[in-house]
Amino acid sequence: MPKKNPKKTDCVFCKKENINEGIIYEDKNFIIKVGFAIIAAGHVMIIPKKHYSCFGAMPVNLLKEYDKLKTKLIKEIETKFSRPILIEYGVWGQSINHAHMHFIPKSSAGYKIKNIISEIKRCHPGFKIKYKKIKKIEYLKKIYEKEKEYVLIERKKRIYIFSTKNIGEKRNSCLDYRILFTKKGIKGVKNWRKLTKKEKIADNYKRHLTKTVLDFDDF
Q: How many alpha carbons fall within 13 Å on the CB side of residue 6?
């Protein structure tokens, strides 16, 4: 079940002093941030500064602005690492109830994702996960208004919106990228709140590499 949206005063992402260390770019309406227990170097998030429960709840003008920033970020990550897969949890399964879009390189040390949609389907044998394809991010608003929750995955300029009504808890689903990558053998990514000392060292290296390599001078 989707979580109740918190008050703005309770939101981690709304308290900028708590996340400054991870911010690597910001403009008037968005920040780009490195999280914790990232899948690989180059894994970052785009987060709106204003509190919205998900991208489907954002106004159209901000979605269009996000789309321009997204295009630049994809190019930068692809140049320095590999083309990213985009994942957003529209209320369903969020660890922090504030809109944030993950950008995860499709290949890095220890893994290669050829087609994440196929990977998810293989992870759920016998279960049909319903999804729609949309051409523009602005179309997300209508889906969110109707469904009240979703999972967005974008690959190769194709946007897939998964219906999460009948999937159940996030911890049982490979729509949770942390579960999917853990099953692919990537260690230290399952729970960003419970890293071992060894996992923290590895994660800090990936985070440092991300901050060092990505360049936002032309943004």
A: 14
pTM recorded for the entire structure: 0.93
Distance in angstroms (rounded) separating the CA atoms of residues 37 and 160:
25
Is residue 180 within 8 Å of 121, Cβ to Cβ?
A: no
Supply 73's token pair: 């970020």
Dist. CA 165–CA 144, nearest whole Å: 12
Name, in order, each residue with C-beta under 8 angstroms of 101's C-beta and a sequence gap of 6 or more: 45, 46, 47, 55, 66, 70, 86, 87, 88, 152
Tell me: pLDDT of 172 over 70: no
- In this predicted model, what pLDDT tens digit does every residue of 174-198 receive, in sequence order? 889 999 999 999 999 999 989 999 9
Topology (CATH level 3) of domain 8-213: HIT family, subunit A (3.30.428)
Please tell me the total number of residues recorded for the chain in this structure. 219
